[in-house]
User: Fold this.
Amino acid sequence: MTRTDDATAHVLARAGGPLRLGAGVAAPAGMLRLTRPDSTGEALPVWPDGATPSLLEEYQVAPVPVERAGETRRVLAACLKCCWTDQSADPWPGDPAPVELVLDTYRALIGRTDDLMRNWAIGALRRLHDSAWIVMADGLITLGPRCALWPVESYAQLKELVRRLPDPERTALTVVADADIVAAARPDTPAPDPATQASPVLASSTRPDTTDHPPSTPEPDTALHRPSTPEPHTTPHRPSKPGPDTTPRGPSTAGRDVSAVRARLGGQAEAGAAEFDDLLGGYDERRRAELVAAFVAVEHAAEPVLEARFLALRDPALRHSLGEMLARRGRTLIQHRERWISGYDDHTAARAARLLGDGGDLPSPGGARSGGQGPGGPASLGEAEKAVLTLVLVHSVAIPRAEGVLPEDTWSSPHPTPVDELRRHTQVPIGELEAALRTLRHAGLLTQVKAGEEAGGYVPGPQFHRLTPAVRRRLQEELILAAGPHSPLAGAVRARRSAE
Assistant:
């Protein structure tokens, strides 16, 4: 695979999640290959020199905020407790666990059982699934590919966290054992003995309520695209499993079926080819660390970072090497006066967009396939998301700029677009509108804000800091065409494009 192909693969992975790899296909340089028993796998980027985005705390740089970060972390901890049953092995891939077991563990952790907490937990599970921290399907949860990025040094902290999490109280009314749920959810496992089947009413109680009612104001905290290791404590201990199901039953194949499921889900992590050794090898330890710190900062900060805080941004020679590191991942440095951030390189992003086509699952370089937004989802925005994003840009940026209350060269705006305004000016159904807003928030394209005692609304998110000059110009033209399609300026834009 050429270096251009590697850069495109990194763009696809950053935009759409872990890349699916065919049997025997090697991971691109700078990626970890997660190999399944059938020799297929997934690839996801690793950080240079083992540094993680937690390094941002040392430089007092704010990461990209996560909606309801507290609940999301606690739910991820509950998933870890339920899925990491063999702590003599690595956390990934772990064992499958029923959704209800995870929710019961979360309820035991927070000490509340009301429906609101359950809805927030379901919302957190969706966010974790979309960001590939977990995989949620068929009523089961397994640890996602990103859990394989936890460094070995953090395992002791994770084990202590699992030890301190309380065991859920499983009600005696549950007549379907967790092992039977795991076995029944897999289409290729033998059907259970009819004598062991529960009544439809009781069986339906194991299905989660998928209603999601997120709070009105998101809680800023660490980003989901990096492993945020939960708070450590002291002695590792293997978590106890729920009590046995005492309901009389006939001969069961659950144990054999669960073993088969575990074998299919098993896998191993394989490091890919070295990516930055030739660039970093010529520097001493201090300058190498400065380069890695600046790389992590510009890639994962919510806002452009001050060059005064990073030697690799102040020094022209180091900054050139930093640019080379970013280029190998399809990224480029973007300057905002004395601040810097990274964004997609225009040429590499265009090549990745051609591979993605209209958002479908198309082959990428070297036989890799884009995993999409989360496991198997689309990497591009749908029509509803594009319509909602356009409305927010028109009302929060274009109109204030036309009124002279917003500087011309910025996509940040203190003028939120109320949800009522979005409902009045779009034909998107309410359910699709809320889903589109949720998707745009999670992607960092919109931010929900409060405006004093008013209801607040939405403004462009932190991703708009990462636009290159060419993309900013093209977006500006698209906004002109959307806000005033019959204006002389829009006619000039169309005329220039037709002449090109």
In short: The two ends are 33 Å apart (CA to CA).
